[in-house]
Amino acid sequence: MSTFHLQIVTPYGLFFDGQAQKLIVRTTEGDVGILSGHSDYAAALAGGKISVTDENSAIKTAAAGEGILSVKKGITRLVADSFEWDNE
Fold first, then answer.
1. Which residues pair with 50 in a beta bridge?
2. Under 8 Å CB-to-CB from 67, ≥6 apart: which residues?
3. What are phi and psi of 58, to 5 degrees?
4. Which of these, 87, 20, 17, 25, lies nearest to 56 by C-alpha position?
5. Is 52 in contact with 33 (CB distance < 8 Å)?
6. pLDDT digits (tens, 9 = 90+) for 10-57
7. Over 22-49, what HEC string results?
8. What pLDDT was estimated at residue 40?
9. With contact defined as beta carbons under 8 Å apart, do 40 and 72 qualify?
10. Which residues neighbour 82 within 8 Å (Cβ) at sequence distance 6 or greater?
11. What distances in angstroms separate CA 29 from CA 18, 34, 44, one per listed residue?
């Protein structure tokens, strides 16, 4: 599966900066999935569970607070007021 550049950022730092195959997040309009080649997009995050499938097909889950999701020129950025991987 193709990958895309994903950055996950909070006021406390950078939590992820690398290649991903898939991102699933909850927006204020419902769940959204991002794959490689997604058109430019912006949405408000509702907060809740997110899922990242990394370039090695490992699935990581996390809890994220409210924020914004943007896809612009092939770079996906998730900026949230809080973020914590499930295994931490």
1. 62
2. 10, 44, 45, 47, 78, 79, 80, 81
3. -80, 135
4. 20
5. no
6. 999 999 999 999 999 999 999 999 999 999 999 999 999 999 999 999
7. EEEEEECCEEEEEECCCCCEEEEECCEE
8. 96
9. yes
10. 10, 63, 64, 65
11. 26, 15, 8
